[in-house]
Amino acid sequence: MNIELPKPLSAYYSAKNQKDIEGMLACFAADASVRDEGEDRRGHAEIREWMEETTRKYGVTVDPREISGEAHTPVVAALVAGNFPGSPVTLYYHFTLAGGAITHLEIDA
Q1: 46: which of 40, 41, 69, 94 fits an S-S bond (Cβ 3.0–4.6 Å)?
Q2: Which domain holds residue 33?
Q3: 52: left (phi over 0), alpha (psi -120 to 50) or beta
């Protein structure tokens, strides 16, 4: 399904599906934070580590299906497929955006 996403989210998902760590990281502010699988990561170095680890471990592809929430706090429901039990599954990506970049991302089921 094609939905219209804010530019940093569109760029993030495109890079994610290409397994492009640099492209994904470029979408995040320098002091951004990520919460995924019960762990918090802050800043580009820790976020890069998370991206490399999860890309290697799960090799996911992400198909955004719908977007809700406010312009600066969108929530994207996406069908995620990869190397994990129960694949594919719908996950919810809770973003905070500021200055044309992702400043926070939290992923949950």
Answers
A1: 41
A2: 7-108
A3: alpha
